[in-house]
């Protein structure tokens, strides 16, 4: 059973919501500005909240809300390729309410958990009703990159989803539901009736500790490719995914011509940063900060690939041995090594993006359509 609903959660008349045992899958973004409280507080006050599932290390606030008698289930979103979801996490509830902000990328770890929840419910024949409190896509309706094929590394994200997908959380859930062949009841509640939609922008509450800013998500699906190299993408700084650099790139700070790194959608500001954790912790990194040009579309995946390719061609010593596991696309990796031309990569990405847009239309719930980012810049 599937339904798309245009009234808020607390207006639903479903008996399972009023009398059943409820679980919630959420993080700190599940906050209601109308009531100035978290969703779990509202449901707990109603008397039927039994479980709260949340990513450990990001939502410890739930342990401080006085949810006595409610089972708190923190889980790791970095389980080394092993799914953090099992049937035991979903036992003892009749309905699961899902409320978190997706970052618009196939690398989103909490959206991957939602996909695993669907798989677990389906394969174990569990009749748990799922209610998705839909959210706008932080990155808008833009599409970037290629869909991840089967058998790829878990580092590459969610199978079948491109680097930047353009769908809302509810639309992704609709796709997961269909492709899983699930039979449990799924209900999507339109983001247009959410109080948060009326008062706040999607990025008002950071969806993750490493997605802190207004523009971070627009860079994320491209800059995450740098995790397959020895470059820093600014993780461990106050602006993750908005910086890129490394300790060995100091010569590029003296070069007055940064055109090899440039892109029509961003300004490049030479910068020095010191990560507080992760790669190059405590070391001075030389590189650039990405600053968006207002109103100009930006293809972050294409830009990241060109940055990596330039460093490889320059003989800067950049290690790209793990790029394939993150990119999930051999043509992209071939481009970085100079075996594929820019025009060949451009055509490959164009075809893949068009295929995704045609497929995604079947699962869309709103009138605004998906679009490709057509700002590819020539490469010398």
UniProtKB/TrEMBL annotation:
Chain ranges of the Peptidoglycan beta-N-acetylmuramidase NamZ C-terminal domain: 219-366
GO molecular function: peptidoglycan beta-N-acetylmuramidase activity
Listed InterPro entries: NamZ, NamZ_C, NamZ_N
Boundaries of every Peptidoglycan beta-N-acetylmuramidase NamZ N-terminal domain copy: 23-192
PANTHER family for the chain: HYPOTHETICAL 460 KDA PROTEIN IN FEUA-SIGW INTERGENIC REGION [PRECURSOR], PEPTIDOGLYCAN BETA-N-ACETYLMURAMIDASE NAMZ
Protein name per the record: DUF1343 domain-containing protein
The species this protein was found in: Candidatus Coprenecus stercoravium
């Amino acid at each position: 059973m599937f339904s798309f609903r245009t009234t808020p959660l607390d207006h639903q008349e479903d008996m399972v919501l009023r009398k059943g045992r409820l679980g919630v899958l959420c993080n700190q973004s599940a906050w209601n500005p109308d009531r100035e409280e978290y969703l779990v507080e509202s449901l707990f006050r109603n008397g039927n909240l039994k479980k709260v599932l949340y990513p450990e290390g990001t939502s410890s606030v739930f342990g401080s809300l006085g949810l006595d008698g409610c089972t708190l289930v923190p889980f790791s979103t970095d389980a080394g390729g092993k799914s953090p979801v099992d049937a035991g996490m979903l036992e003892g509830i009749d309905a699961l309410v899902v409320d978190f902000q997706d970052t618009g990328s196939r690398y989103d770890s909490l959206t991957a958990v939602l996909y695993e929840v669907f798989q677990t419910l389906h394969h174990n024949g569990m009749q748990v009703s799922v209610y998705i409190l839909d959210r706008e896509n932080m990155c808008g309706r833009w599409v970037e990159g290629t869909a991840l094929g089967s058998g790829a590394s878990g580092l590459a994200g969610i199978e079948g989803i491109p680097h930047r997908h353009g769908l809302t959380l509810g639309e992704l859930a609709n796709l997961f539901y269909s492709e899983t062949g699930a039979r449990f009841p799924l209900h999507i509640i339109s983001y247009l009736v959410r109080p948060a939609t009326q008062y706040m922008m999607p990025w008002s509450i950071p969806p993750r500790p490493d997605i802190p800013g207004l523009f971070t998500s627009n860079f994320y699906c491209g800059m995450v490719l740098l995790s397959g190299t020895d470059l820093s993408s600014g993780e461990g700084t106050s602006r993750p995914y908005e910086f890129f650099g490394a300790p060995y790139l100091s010569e590029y700070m003296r070069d007055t011509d940064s055109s090899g790194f440039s892109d029509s959608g961003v300004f490049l500001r030479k910068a020095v940063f010191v990560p507080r954790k992760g790669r190059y912790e405590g070391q001075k990194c030389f590189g650039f900060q990405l600053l968006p040009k207002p109103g100009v579309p930006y293809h972050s995946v294409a830009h990241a690939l060109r940055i990596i390719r330039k460093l490889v061609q320059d003989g800067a010593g950049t290690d790209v041995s793990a790029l394939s596991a993150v990119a999930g696309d051999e043509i992209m990796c071939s481009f970085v090594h100079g075996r594929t031309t820019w025009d060949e990569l451009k055509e490959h990405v164009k075809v893949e993006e068009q295929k995704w847009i045609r497929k995604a239309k079947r699962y869309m719930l709103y009138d605004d359509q998906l679009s490709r980012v057509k700002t590819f810049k020539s490469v010398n």
